[in-house]
Design goal:
heterodimer; A: alpha+beta; DNA polymerase, domain 1; 2 domains; 5-stranded mixed sheet; 31% helix; B: alpha+beta; Aldehyde Oxidoreductase, domain 3; Aldehyde Oxidoreductase, domain 4; 7-stranded mixed sheet; globular
Chain lengths: 159, 758
């Protein structure tokens, strides 16, 4: 039996009906069509599906869609403001903090959540912040350099 | 000022904005109208005869549209060594026999993944289990079960490489070491699992979106397996979520999606689960290594004898190449005057072993660099010194095998020596280990039997000056789209933003062997450079006429300025020249073509890169646990085209190669992989990642575009060896089998203590 799910994704309200067992990642990708969020393992081990749920980073393959009822979800598609990329997105570009790009949406969401919670993390805290996200390409250090550059204020928030 | 205006600049990846905004579309994201979802049923037995498959119940399940088995195929066997039909031994959908846990036996297409999954449970397969064999050392015994008919002792293929007189040379050695090693397997763990959307039309044409390292290979293998014309198949590959050697053979997702689609004339999408990715796709080749190394007292190495037995798994795949390359790279990066290699690849009832980043060389480098340190230790020679004494130099011929033009190994050794000295006295239980390596810039092998040039590119210049590059190269994350765009921009004298690249689409791009063997920068780079030069010649012909300059002057283009080389102020805008040139050609866009196939460049590769790595570890002798503190690499890859790309390759290689040395493994029980999930398969995560430092050495490779050579796979070779040597330096124990886990270190420490007491 489908149930009603009312929530916001990247500021846009949605009112849809889903099966109780439907996962948040399925709603985002398959129902709403926001395919930026990836799935790499379906068991909350790789972090490719990371999104922000009411400001906290969650692995959307391990959250039932109905658990997001009434909540605000932010996905990678919600990071840019209009045509302005977020500071982390720009820093990722400058530092080559991605290669194949498949983990990148999740990596950006974990990093964004980290800085939302703690705008001045130490290097160790940055590493902890992305420890739930696997990247098989970059070796993580360029990602840490990108986050560091944002923390140092090298990238201004878009207005 | 650099003589280049684009090359060597720190630029954004040309696909960067798509990737950081989530708009990059992978095969995983492709949805077509009327599309169905497929799943693959796999063997639970390592070796069994298929007696009967009954799919009636599955077909009756609401939402199921088709079930296919081996009977629905043409019954052909495929393989990537197409020149050697006996090595094309994989049916993909097995008809009579399964040979490993995970071998596909049936596939289902349904309206959604859940229904397809449910249908798999309803397919009844009757098997007759057969005796199985898992270790190559057992599989070569007389009484071992035979995995492929007519293959004696399960020996799939053997390779012999030899030069000099090894036996005579050992007689002359002052010191000889004989050692055994075991190299483990490794999973690629691409973040995007293998996937494909295949769409067969009623017109008999096939269109496929797939995550792949070589669209051309997939196209050609489809043509073989389905008996359709190559040009009636279009393979798209826009973004690929990692490859690392796992994605240039026809896989079960691609094959089954196509077979189902052919039956239904509807698009079918198959995405392998993470568990399938671990158990039923290919993996790094485990190897037993037997090494004999002889030297003079002063450390001059006179002879090396190498014997290798590799665990092949159930089919040939690219394992034959890994067998050859591990044998060749066992001689690297040293000048052995006498060398002999014998390698045997043995079929086993385990998941297939094949290509993975480094392609046999991470194994040979781990064992070789471990042994050379042992030798140095025995002879009381410094590890850097012994490598310096024997290391390859520019213009060196590997007897009868290869010719090495550029080689910066000795500068790399100097830099690493400086780095180690700079670290001063280390704290207790810290150690720095070094490892030297080399690798090829693309292979000169044509076992695939392509009639085409190895690399090709077409460039079209549009009326607005935009340069369209068409290449069959595949960007799998390594950044070939960016590197090739930079090469085109540099050669044509335009800016990077003036270039638009179309890659990996067999419908519009010329064939290219694809992204493997570290071949794209050199081989495709040369093709793109030549295509750009072809365009440029046409532009300059027009410019010379228009400018009316004295014919003794040469013309060139730099930063969109067409000018006289000796008088750069005399020139015309590139955009004006393009407009005029197109008009002058009766409205034809400017088109250039370029190709590259290595000729007379030895048997292996047209160029080789080199480097030396130093890994620092801190070992806890109480627990055997150790931490990777720092990995510093002195590295040369010819002219650096894309510095951001090289940094990424290097750091990423350390994550993967460090993992090979440190923690990654695929333990098995009776052919069953015991850790088929990301939670259980330990990879280096951000907290384990060491600090990394790059010391770039400047070299120039005459065969490469603008002097460039590979920087992708070679970097995967040194780290396991450097870690092993570092652990030895730190606490005096030597681990000869990968990975170097805390348990093994602790056990070795305890044995060492026991011996000391005696």
């Amino acid at each position: 039996m489908k149930k009603e799910l009312k929530f916001k994704v990247n500021g846009q309200p949605y009112d849809i009906f889903v099966k109780p067992k439907t996962l948040l990642v399925e709603v985002l990708r398959d129902h709403i069509g926001l395919t930026g969020t990836k799935r790499g393992c379906n068991s909350s081990s790789c972090g490719a599906c990371t999104v922000m749920l009411d400001g906290m980073s969650v692995k959307s393959c391990s959250v039932l869609a109905l658990q997001a009822n009434g909540a605000e979800v932010v996905t990678v598609e919600g990071l840019a403001k209009g045509n302005q990329l977020s500071p982390l997105q720009r820093a990722f570009l400058d530092h080559g903090a991605y290669q194949c790009g498949f983990c990148t949406p999740g990596m950006l969401m974990s990093s964004t959540a980290l800085l939302t919670e703690n705008p001045r993390p130490t290097k160790e805290q940055m590493k902890e912040g992305i420890d739930g996200n696997i990247c098989r390409c970059t070796g993580y250090n360029s990602i840490i350099r990108a986050i560091t550059a944002v923390v140092k204020g090298e990238y201004k928030e878009a207005k | 000022m650099s003589k280049y205006s684009v090359i060597g600049q720190r630029v954004h990846n040309v696909d960067g904005t798509e990737k950081v905004t989530g708009s990059a579309k992978y095969t995983f994201d492709v949805v077509l109208p009327n599309m169905l979802y497929g799943k693959v049923l796999r063997s639970p037995y390592p070796h069994a005869r298929i007696l009967k498959i009954d799919a009636r119940k599955a077909k009756r399940l609401v939402g199921v549209k088709a079930v296919v088995t081996g009977k629905d195929t043409l019954g052909r066997k495929q393989g990537i060594w197409r020149r050697f039909p006996e090595l094309c031994d994989e049916e993909i959908l097995c008809r009579a026999k399964v040979r490993y846990i995970g071998d596909p036996v049936a596939a289902v297409a349904a309206i959604d993944e859940d229904t397809a999954e449910e249908a798999l449970d309803l397919i009844e397969v009757e098997y007759e289990p057969l005796p199985a064999v898992f270790d190559p050392m057992d599989a070569i015994k007389e009484d071992a079960p035979q995995i492929h008919e007519g293959v004696e002792l399960n020996i799939n293929i053997n390779r012999h490489i030899e030069w000099g007189d090894v036996d005579e040379a050992f007689e002359k050695c002052d010191y000889i070491r004989e050692d055994k090693f075991k190299c483990s397997s490794q999973a690629h763990v691409c973040m995007e699992t293998h996937d494909a959307v295949a769409s067969f039309g009623h017109n008999g044409k096939l269109e496929v979106w797939t995550s792949s390292q070589s669209s051309y290979y997939i196209q050609r293998l489809y043509a073989d397996m389905f008996d359709i014309r190559e040009s009636d198949i279009r393979v798209h590959n826009r973004h690929t979520g990692g490859g690392f050697g796992s994605k240039f053979e026809l896989d079960s997702a691609q094959f089954c999606a196509c077979l189902l689609s052919q039956k239904l004339c509807r698009p079918v999408k198959i995405v392998l689960s993470r568990e399938e990715e671990f158990t039923a796709t290919k993996r790094r080749t485990p190897m037993y290594y037997f090494l004999k190394l002889g030297a003079k007292k002063d450390g001059t190495m006179l002879a090396k004898e190498v014997r290798v037995i590799t665990e092949g798994g159930a089919y040939t795949a690219m394992g034959a190449t890994a067998l050859y390359l591990t044998g060749f790279f066992s001689s690297f990066p040293y000048k052995y005057p006498n060398y002999r290699y014998d390698g045997y690849r043995v079929y086993t009832n385990t998941a297939v072993t094949s290509a993975m980043r480094g392609f046999g060389a991470p194994q040979s480098t781990f064992v070789g660099e471990s042994q050379i340190d042992m030798l140095a230790d025995d002879l009381g020679i410094d590890p850097i010194e012994i490598r310096r004494k024997n290391g390859m130099t520019p213009n060196y011929e590997v007897p009868g095998q290869a010719f090495i033009q550029s080689c910066g190994l000795h500068q790399c050794l100097d830099k690493i020596e400086e780095h180690i000295k700079g670290r001063g006295k280390l704290p207790p239980n810290h150690g720095i280990g070094v490892s030297a390596y080399g690798f090829m810039s693309g292979g000169i092998f044509n076992w695939f039997n392509t009639p085409y040039a190895f690399s090709a590119a077409v460039i079209r210049i549009n009326i607005d000056g935009k340069v369209d590059v068409y290449t069959g190269a595949c960007d799998i994350g390594q950044g070939s789209n960016t590197t090739l765009s930079m090469i085109a921009a540099e050669e044509l004298g335009v800016r990077l933003e003036d270039v638009r690249i179309f890659s990996g689409d067999t419908g519009i791009c010329p064939p290219d062997l694809g992204a493997w063997g570290s071949r794209e920068t050199l081989m495709n780079g040369n093709a793109v450079k030549r295509a750009a030069a072809d365009c440029k010649r046409q532009l300059l012909e027009f410019a010379a006429a228009k400018m009316g300059a004295n014919i003794v002057y040469d013309l060139d283009i730099k930063d969109r300025w067409v000018h006289l080389v000796d008088r750069p102020e005399r020139g015309v805008s590139y955009f004006d020249i393009v407009k005029g040139a197109i008009r002058g050609k009766d409205g034809n866009a400017i088109m250039g073509r370029g190709y590259y196939t290595p000729h007379r460049k030895g048997m292996i590769s047209p160029a080789y890169s080199f480097g030396v790595q130093a890994a620092e570890v801190a070992v806890d002798p109480e627990t055997g646990r150790y931490k990777l503190i720092n990995v510093t690499t002195a590295h040369e890859s010819g002219t650096v085209i894309n510095p951001v790309g090289i940094e990424g390759q290097l750091e990423g290689a350390i994550m993967m190669a460090g993992g090979y040395g440190f923690c990654e493994d695929q333990p098995m029980d009776e052919g069953k992989i015991l850790n088929p999930s990301i939670a259980d398969y330990k990879l280096i995560r951000s907290l384990d990642m060491p600090d990394t430092k790059i010391l770039e050495i400047d070299t120039y490779e005459p065969e490469g575009p603008f002097g460039a050579k590979e920087a992708g796979e070679g970097l995967t070779n040194p780290t396991a060896g450097a870690i092993g040597n570092a652990v030895y330096k730190a606490v005096g124990v030597r681990i000869n089998d990968l990975p170097i886990t805390p348990e093994k270190v602790l056990r070795a420490l305890k044995e060492k203590q026991k011996k000391a007491k005696k």
